[in-house]
Amino acid sequence: MFRSLLVRNSIGILLIHFSISCNPLTLNNPCDQKSKAYIETLLLASVSETPIPFCGFRVGNSPKLWETQAYLKASNADANDGFGYSVAISGDTIVVGAAGESSNQTTITNGPTASSDNSLGSAGAAYVFQRFGSSWSQAAYLKPSNLGGTDQFGVSVAIDRDTIVVGANQEDSNQTTITNAPNAIAPNEGATDSGAAYVFQRSGTTWSEQAYLKPSNTGANDQFGISLAISGDTIAVGAYFEDSNQTSITNGSPAPANEGATNAGAVYVFQRSGTTWSEQAYLKPSNMEAGDRFGITVDISNDTIVVGANLEASNQITITNGSGASVDNSAVNAGAAYVFRRTGTTWTQEAYLKAPNAESGDQFGNAVAIDGDTIVVGAFAESSNQTTITNGTTASSDNSASIAGAAYVFQRTGSTWSHQAYLKPPNLGADDRFGNTVAIEGNTILVSSIFEDNNQTTVTNGTMPNDDNSLSNSGAVYVFQRSGSTWAFRAYFKAPNADVEDRFGNAISISGDTAVVGVNLEDSNQNTITNGPTASTNNSALTSGAAFVFFRK
Length: 553
Known about the structure:
By secondary structure, the protein is mainly beta. The protein folds into two domains: 2-61, no CATH class; 66-552, Methylamine Dehydrogenase, Chain H (7 Propeller), CATH 2.130.10.130. Helices cover 2% and strands 43% of the residues. A five-stranded antiparallel beta sheet has the order 36-37-39-5-38, with no helix packed on it. A five-stranded antiparallel beta sheet has the order 6-7-9-10-8, with no helix packed on it. A hairpin with a 2-residue loop joins strand 26 and strand 27 (374-379). It is globular, with a radius of gyration of 24 Å. It starts with a strand and ends with a strand.
């Protein structure tokens, strides 16, 4: 028989489970509070996911629970802005992209306001939010200095501490060099939808534009900036419609200008020294083919980059560690992910990741995320009807739940990658598209299902409630937690104002105990932030968009 109590001590609140028949502690007990072993055990318990044995006791953390912390709206919210199309978080700072925003402003507004102009359709914008205590406020409104109509600035965003990078995949300049501030960007419309990325830096509370990134082989319709990621002084930018047929990495610059493989895709790596950015590498997969869309998603953690190619067509169901990859094309749009690693300033392909149940049409690689030695890959069109997690190297071959979706976890030991888990949600349904977006921080993974249909408007920690499918395509996000090498379902997020076709979860990000979820099709006309668990149910500004903050405590 066990009882539980909370004990408050210098390292926090610990939950102690104890047996009624256990012997009391004595001065001669090796777990005396003055002993080194006593302190070491309490420290271990403070980070353990499960109670640990300790001198007749079981000691562990009281479990952390997720709750809704805030409802973010742009201060100039308007119909069709698509606020929440992209989101990213680092510490107490969130950046949200609104690729459909239409202001013609070409400067940054530091503070809580934003332009109400609508003269430049789908030019795009990004918004910075800052948390003080548990309250969020708008800190800046970011616009690029060479803004153009339909640039879709904000289609992708990333942040690491005081640096933000924003993609504009339909920007039209034919420039093939980087512009570092304070140099001005020359107006140029010579390469339609070539794309660009912009770097912003914070000093104190003031944001300014630091650099304008263009690839060394800029081409029309490449859509450079469709995806991007940042880690420290390194940025990776995807161009999923780039057309080179190169099957090797170029360390340095320039990248090749050939057009031999339409929409094969590429990723570019940029490095900062001081305040100056330069192109460091041009990444291509070793089995590159036309139409693979390598670079549709990208993420970076320190010296490792993972890239998705959701239309890659190999039927391989194993991982290739090293620089090789299958040239088979018998599983159309099965998808793949590639791992690249830097040693010094040189990048090499470290692994070629495939799902253990890879099949045509699964689109494995449509979403990727990495933290340290763990990668998670989404496959929103996978069709298994499984509603449990498989820890290990296998995955279901069932195909009875069309486009239900799945996510896959991979783990690195040394330089060798292996498949660790196959994630499925407990309330899986056909066409839910679980795996549309993914995010990871430490031992926590978030996975979205943008077409999930439940009418719930609260957060569920633990066991799922009864399923309901009355809010078509309202969307949901699922939280999974790792203990040791075992993954388990932990929480289920829904918007407080969940509604049909909102597609909650189209973008997600996590930092520590805070997660942010984008809902670019949300329809409220609210232009203020709501701190707390409520949100507007007004639907008078179609697809204005929103973002929700969730906190674990």
